[in-house]
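Long-time lurker. I teach an intro course on protein structure, and each term I like to show students one example going from raw sequence to a predicted 3D structure in token notation. This year I'd like something fresh instead of my usual example. Would anyone be willing to generate the tokens for the chain below so I can use it in lecture? Attribution to the forum is fine with me.
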Amino acid sequence: MEPSKEQWVRESAAESTSWKDFAARLGYSYQTARIWARRLNLKIPDGRYGNETGTPRKAERNYDIWERRFIKNHTLQSIAQDYNISRQRVLAIFKKEAKRLATKK
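-- Reply from a regular --
Happy to contribute to a lecture. Here you go:
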């Protein structure tokens, strides 16, 4: 008996190591693979350092950057050196996190 389309997609997701791999296994574009994953509530690894979704560490980093800049008054340069990113990237993360926190309250 042949597996259903949904079961096949779920099995492909379980075997995938990244979004790119998942899309290749399905034979679909990246966007179509994302739609399937969203529809079936699948968690696909993002392919970065074995992190399942990339979100927990990223969220912690973003909040830390906001806290160090807004509360502790650290310079963009000192934060950038600690995270090995550019000052512009620190500023962009800070602004995005500030906006997220403002809408959260």
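Some talking points for your students: Residues 55-104 form one domain. The chain has a mean pLDDT of 83.
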